[in-house]
Amino acid sequence: MSFAESTPRPRRYDLIAFDWDGTLFDSTVAITRSIQAAVRDVGGTVPSDAQASYVIGMALMPALAHAAPDVPQEKYAELASRYRYHYMKLQEQVTLFDGVLPMLQALRARHHWLVVATGKSLRGLNEALATVALQGVFDGSRTADETAGKPHPLMLQELMAEFGVEPQRTLMIGDTTHDLEMARNAGCDSVAVAYGAHGSEGFAPFGPLYVAQTVADLQRWLGDKA
Prior knowledge:
This protein is of the alpha/beta class and about 230 residues long. It folds into 2 domains: about 5-25 and about 95-225, HAD superfamily/HAD-like (Rossmann fold, 3-Layer(aba) Sandwich), CATH 3.40.50.1000; about 30-95. The chain is built from 10 helices and 6 strands; from the N terminus they run αβαααααβαβαβαββα. The protein has helices at about 5, 30-40, 50-55, 60-65, 75-90, 100-110, 120-130, 155-165, 175-185, 215-225, and strands spanning about 15-20, 115-120, 140-145, 170-175, 190-195, 210. A 6-stranded parallel sheet has the order 3-2-1-4-5-6, sandwiched between helices. Strand 2, helix 7 and strand 3 (about 140-145) form a beta-alpha-beta unit. Helix 6 packs parallel to helix 10. The longest helix has 15 residues, at about 75-90. About 40% of the residues are buried.
């Protein structure tokens, strides 16, 4: 065996940032149904599945406002409250995608820093991360209520600054065009997943390095390329 073959390949990325909903967490249907039910509750025009799922990944109020443009601002607080009510009713049905934990554990074994960059609230993310299986898996996070929401690059910029990692050593993985646009705005590479909220037909303009069809597909690509 040659020296090159016996020497571990240097990592391409030190910092790997994951979106949460639709990328790691199988929550797309629950979020879509909760948005639709909340809009119905306040008397707005109920968005289609495509319209409701498009806003996944954005901060809550901009997402709801985009999905329900005919709901007046004075009803926004009620709209958000009804969304949370409906989502909590469905939350027990929401779990990690199959294969996510082994993938994350394999990346940790290769000494990547793993972080979450999500449109969820800090409270919502902390509740999800409190499970025994996820304790200690992630090194950091940013949520939409802590900083600017996607596709603004500040979320990634703050994480890169926290870990002292340059954009060219940072990879963003997400299921929406908001994730990919944020990565582009931050000067980072991105990988898209096609099993979440957005269909793969909209990803190309944002230049992802790869579009993974399944978690297993994503893990294979990361094992070879990250």
